[in-house]
Amino acid sequence: MVDVLSQNEIDALLAALSSGEMDAEDLKKEETSRKVSVYDFKRAVRFSKDHIRSLTRIHENFARYLTTYFSAQLRTFVQINVVDVEQLPYDEFIRSIPKMTILNIFEAEPLEGRMVLEIHPNVAYAMLDRMLGGQGVAPAKISNLTEIETTVMERIFSRTLDSLQEAWKTIIDIQPRLEALETNPQFMQIVSPNETIALISFSTKIGDTTGMINLCIPHVVIEPIMPRLSVHHWFVSQKKERIPEEVEVLEQRVNKAKLPIVAELGETSITIQEFLSLGVGDVLNLNKPVNEGLKIKIGDKLKFIGSPGSVRDKLAVQVDEIVNEGAVEEYDE
């Protein structure tokens, strides 16, 4: 962007030129000289700011789904929030995580390639302790997982992928499937070291235990759907009209919905003393004549006027009149 000088800066520049403090030829040479910016080919920029914003929105929803899921499963306070979305080489991600951690390697058809959900040991062991009946406290020393612990963790984190599927539904319908659970990052090579990845970091709090959850998405995996991560796609998808089949299914579900219907005989007011002295055979005078129609309400809305009766030895009410919108006031006392 070109810098715009203020009037004071222009006056100071002209004064310096007129006094000889600055040379006009030097200024021309400075303008014509090439400006070089440093570019690191190992940190290739593959995700635009627009892509990063879209990934942030998607995984903020993912964080909310995870919070709900873990709160229900662990029956304790859980809070998960997105703290950062960045792009970096895969090798840098591997070197940044602990040597002993929980790595959930998964695929998400129809996308080709593998992704990783890395859970910090403090968080993973707190979840495991809570699932096994403990207070949700991480051990002071992290050790290798037993077969039983591995099985429990696989079940916990395989179900988190359902939340990821729900979060990505506005972009693409993916089918995440857990492939393996590793604890050593050196044994996990899903892409080449210099491949650019999107790293989504979540701050996680379970009771008094805190830690990070990192989602690693290689650029090569989501490259085919990168155009869908643009703002234009979000606006177009929001204006998408329902197909006839969806409308028909929606109508069927609405038609099956049950509504409460109440036929009011009338109302009256009595004192507490009168209420306490009520007995069998006492009569309460209502606020309407016997020949006046009954109010029939759907929920709390007046919709019909009817008359009482019986059908096959059961109390019934017959609809005599349909109350149109705006005509409710005619029947209010």
Describe the model.
The protein has a six-stranded antiparallel beta sheet. It has two domains: 40-236, CheC-like (Chemotaxis protein chec), CATH 3.40.1550.10; 258-275 and 288-324, SpoA-like (Surface presentation of antigens (SPOA)), CATH 2.30.330.10. It has helices at residues 7-19, 24-32, 49-74, 90-96, 121-131, 147-167, 219-222, 231-238, 244-255, 272-276; strands at residues 78-89, 102-109, 114-119, 175-182, 196-206, 209-218, 261-264, 294-298, 301-311, 314-322. α3 (49-74) packs across α6 (147-167). It is of the alpha+beta class and 333 residues long. The longest helix is centred in the N-terminal third of the chain and has 26 residues, at 49-74.
Shape: extended
Instruction: Write out the CATH superfamily name of the largest domain.
Output: CheC-like
Note the total helix count: 10
What count of structural domains?
Answer: 2
CATH class bucket of the largest domain: Alpha Beta
Rg for CA atoms: 34 Å
Tell me the CATH architecture of the largest domain.
Answer: 3-Layer(aba) Sandwich
Name the poorly predicted regions: none
Give a topology summary.
Elements: H1 7-19, H2 24-32, H3 49-74, E1 78-89, H4 90-96, E2 102-109, E3 114-119, H5 121-131, H6 147-167, E4 175-182, E5 196-206, E6 209-218, H7 219-222, H8 231-238, H9 244-255, E7 261-264, H10 272-276, E8 294-298, E9 301-311, E10 314-322
Antiparallel strand pairs: 1-5, 2-3, 2-4, 3-6, 5-6, 7-8, 8-9, 9-10
